[in-house]
Amino acid sequence: MLPGPTNVPNRVMRAMLAPIINHRSDDFVELYTDVVDKTQQVFETKNDIVALSASGTGAVEAGVVNLVKKGDKIIIPVNGEFSRRLSQLIEGQGGNVVKLETPPGENSTFDQVKEAFDNNKDVKAFYVVHNETSTGTMVNYLDKVSDLTSRNDAFYVVDSVSLLGGAPLPVDKWNIDVCMTGAQKAIAAPPGISPISVSAKAKKYMIENPPSTIYFNLARYFKFYDGEKHTPFTPALPLLYAYREALSIMLEEGLQNVFKRHKVCSDALYTGLSAMGLTPFVKKEEDRSISIVALNYLDGLEDKTFRSTLADKFKVLVAGGFGDLKGKVFRVGCMGEVSPYHVMRTISAISSTLAMMGYDVDAKAGLKTAEEKLKAL
Amino acid sequence: MLPGPTNVPNRVMRAMLAPIINHRSDDFVELYTDVVDKTQQVFETKNDIVALSASGTGAVEAGVVNLVKKGDKIIIPVNGEFSRRLSQLIEGQGGNVVKLETPPGENSTFDQVKEAFDNNKDVKAFYVVHNETSTGTMVNYLDKVSDLTSRNDAFYVVDSVSLLGGAPLPVDKWNIDVCMTGAQKAIAAPPGISPISVSAKAKKYMIENPPSTIYFNLARYFKFYDGEKHTPFTPALPLLYAYREALSIMLEEGLQNVFKRHKVCSDALYTGLSAMGLTPFVKKEEDRSISIVALNYLDGLEDKTFRSTLADKFKVLVAGGFGDLKGKVFRVGCMGEVSPYHVMRTISAISSTLAMMGYDVDAKAGLKTAEEKLKAL
Fold first, then answer.
1. ipTM summary value
2. Are the beta carbons of B259 and B166 closer than 8 angstroms?
3. Pick from B23, B233, B242: CB nearest A57
4. Facing residue for B92 by CB, picked from A21, A212, A237
5. Are residues A184 and A297 located together in one domain of the fold?
6. Is A4 within the bounds of a domain?
7. What is the DSSP string of B250-309?
8. In this structure, how many other beta carbons lie within 10 angstroms of the beta carbon of residue A360?
9. Given a cut of 90, is residue B243 above it in pLDDT?
């Protein structure tokens, strides 16, 4: 139950055993075009897809270095580790960042974003972290942003590393120019493949204004794909096979069913754990993440003892807080394979761990309310 | 018999099935410190090691963006696709490149390198591609270069993506500051992990002068490793397991034995194929690569038909020429698992393919001379 890398189904693990092939062969073209096609289905887009052999941060970096040039004005909400990192990357490229800062666990509102667009007509792009893994916060107005970006003729870039596949993010419908994710989160593949989608408008810009480096230079990837359906560099083949298998599993289940399962499971986790007296870190319900359930520790509850008891006695792994939140919150991943079984077992294990540590929690209330919520599936 | 990615032993493939773990856990620390330790043994160094989740090009880029700043003078021999790419990367960072250009298949001599150092006292670094995959050329004076780099107080950087592990490259003995390779060549792991070694002097420089990007910013990797033995970003876990297993296999065989096996096998390939009338593309014997055996096509021999017959009828995969050499040469990988069996079967299959295509080649001479050479093992 980590906030990624998440559990990987055996079917996906076994896909890695396919033979190592020549990445300049017809076999590779078949594999990679299928990867692109299935990624397009999950991103709900007809845009170009590049599946980078790198972690999610690599895809995020690609989303920045191919678009941001010195002096470009960029609007970006910042309220946690990953949005701060994204902002630093943009500044590293010489971007002139208009930061909409809010405290961890709170999102900028759509009105604040709109105001920033009103005050910065010359904005080049809007960058946003869809789901802030460090705090379990999720932005819920991404459907409305393209009204602003299209009005100001700005690029719209979404870092959805820790959520895409777990909640709706229809790239074409919402007019997202560049969208990045990682395979090891809601898609439930092993870490190491990070796909990115690029609109025709952004692609044109990238080809005309390539960065000075190579590995994340997307123009190179377009050239190889548009030519012979190859990648410019040797890709991480076993991970590509695994990633394709994970996408197949999602598409077999049906995207809408996958989204619903994620939503219902996280609802059940929030409700069940709240009923046991644990409070969600994110106060406003509409700001809470579907894939990362962050909870405040009870008074005096020691992070390391709690998480190691949970792991050693019950083999349930959760993550601690990030940065300033270390020791103050813990985070339960709700992504990929997550199912009612995972939810019930996690609530059960947390209640038992708390009991062993001397806390008097109402396990029955937690389990019953969660079970109730799970009936929606 | 590709020039990478190469065959991966089953033992290495199966290592990928280890469970996906938390990359902030003690289990990960155990895995990653072991990866670092075994990489140090194969690099013959006590220097810092970073195992990047990226292809070899990623490690090469890291070796450039962390050292080269605008205006820095860099000496680099250029005689093929990969040395040209390295040179472009350096220029992309604003480096002032002193190129020692030679035709494909020929190396700059040590005297030419020495002359470049004599004429450029202010050189910041010497970059060299150890083994030019595109032409099957190998530089054989890397042991002597540190006399020059230490005299001029320059960094010494070796891109050994397609050879390290297949031939001696003792990083500490030869005073190499930065050395990069890829897991999918002589180490015989799947592609996707690319290790890099960094001397204390280069590490200090990198920490004090970090690049503006994140994914290949080695200072971040040092900080996480020196702190908690972690990596800054989610690593490609299954590939790390596989890479560790491949290193273990090499160390069990013994590095010197691995080097000898590569040398004897490539000797046998050059000799056997020459005895059948195929001429090595690289004229000077001392310039020929140990891991990539490049051969000129016989007059009128069509690349695509030759390679597809070899693949379809005999399941032996070799690569064509690169860039300008397309259709003129073919390249046989001699790396990783390569053994007398692979050599004999390749020569046999090539002789049969040539016979099927109507060429009158002396298969017996090819097989007998190769067999003779292989007795050295």
1. 0.95
2. yes
3. B233
4. A212
5. no
6. no
7. HHHH-HHHHHHHHHHHHHHHHHHHHHTTPPBSS-SGGGB-SSEEEEEPPTT--HHHHHHH
8. 7
9. yes
Domain extent, residue B292, equals 255-374
The whole-angstrom separation of Cα A65 and Cα A193 is 18
Q: How many CB pairs under 8 A join A and B?
A: 164
pLDDT at site A190: 97
Q: Is residue A3 part of a domain?
A: no
**Residue A4's closest CA among B7, B116, B84, B20?**
B20
Residue identified by tokens 């604040």 is: A112
Q: How far is B325 from chain A (nearest CA, A)?
A: 16
As to burial, measured by CB atoms within 10 angstroms (0-12 exposed, 13-18 middle, 19+ buried), residue B135 is buried
- Out of B4, B93, B236, the one facing A192 most closely (by C-beta) is B236
The mean per-residue pLDDT over the stretch A327-339 comes to 96
Tokens of B371: 């067999």
User: In chain A, what residues touch B14 (CB-CB under 8 Å)?
Assistant: 17
Asked if residue A323 has pLDDT above 90, the reply is no
Residues A180, A60 contacting (CB under 8 angstroms)? yes
Please answer yes or no on whether B319 and A184 come within 8 Å at the CB atom. no
The Cα-based distances of A360 to A293, A295, A353, A354, B328 in angstroms read 22, 17, 11, 8, 78
Which of B66, B215, B308 to probe the A interface (max A CBs under 10 A)? B215
Residues A99, A236, single domain; the answer is yes
Q: Does B23 touch chain A (CB under 8 A)?
A: yes
Whole-number Å distance between alpha carbons of B325 and A177: 39
Task: Select from A185, A220, A253 the last residue of a domain.
Answer: A253
Q: What is the pLDDT of residue A204?
A: 98
Q: Residue A179: which H helix or E strand, with range?
A: strand A178-180
Residues of chain B contacting A192 with CB distance shorter than 8 Å: 53, 192, 235-239
Cross-chain residue pair A184–B212, CB shorter than 8 Å: no
Count of the separate structural domains present in chain A: 2
**What per-residue confidence (pLDDT) applies to B322?**
86
The pairing of beta strand B292-296 with beta strand A178-180: unpaired
Q: State whether residue B92 sits within 8 Å of chain A by CB.
A: yes
- Chain B contact set for A4 (CB, 8 A): 234
Residue of B nearest to A14 (CA): B17
* Residues B245-255 as b or e (16 or more Cβ within 10 Å = b): bbbebbeeeee
CA angle B169, B122, B95 (to 5 degrees): 75
Q: How far is B8 from chain A (nearest CA, A)?
A: 7
Name A27's Cβ contacts closer than 8 Å, sequence gap at least 6: A21
List pLDDT tens digits, range A252-286: 999 999 999 999 999 999 999 999 999 999 999 99
A321 — contact with chain B (CB < 8 Å)? no
Same domain, B177 and B218: yes
Check whether residue A130 and residue A245 sit in a common domain.
Answer: yes
Please tell me which residue of chain A has the smallest CA distance to B94. A212
Both tokens assigned to B273: 């194929």
Paired with B337 in beta bridges are none
Contact A20 B53 (CB under 8 A): no
**Domain-located, residue B307:** yes
Q: Which of B11, B53, B316 to mutate to test the interface with A (most CBs of A within 10 A)?
A: B53
Shortest distance, CA A214 to any CA of chain B (angstroms): 7
